[in-house]
Amino acid sequence: MRVAELINDYRTLQLHISQQLASVSMGNVQLEGYRVLAQSSAAAQRLLATGFTSMPIEDQGSDPEMEKAQLRQVILDASVRRFQAHKIYLRVAAAKRWVINRNELLARSSKANSQVREVDQLLRQELDSITDHTIFSDLRQADSRAGLWVSEDPPLAAIQLWINNSRN
Question: Closest by alpha carbon to 127, among 103, 149, 96, 152?
Fold first, then answer.
């Protein structure tokens, strides 16, 4: 049941990411907000293209123990995918707000340079606030509020280790 919940969240996040990206026209990638959108789009595509990867499981001797180990790996993989998709979604949402605010300022006045710099600074602050710890905490709190069973979910350290190992 937990695997289905995690994968459903992942799927929903991917849909929201694609909807957010489709509703924004890409501009000059020299500007940070557009660069974030382009990077997020590429990251979402890579995440979708990544297949399930499992770590070698030592033969535990009994089938039930082997099944538990495999299930823990599936939960870890699904948790990592949801975590990464949520991170991408938050970055896309921040960049989309930046695009909207920047375009509104530029439409009102061609001399909005100081206000545009403020919008740029706000984007940097939002992106800096998207940390692994806040993402993990937000997801855990949402699951707990929904009454979902989270005791078998991997800790943040396991998610970070999995992500770091998959990059190498």
Answer: 96
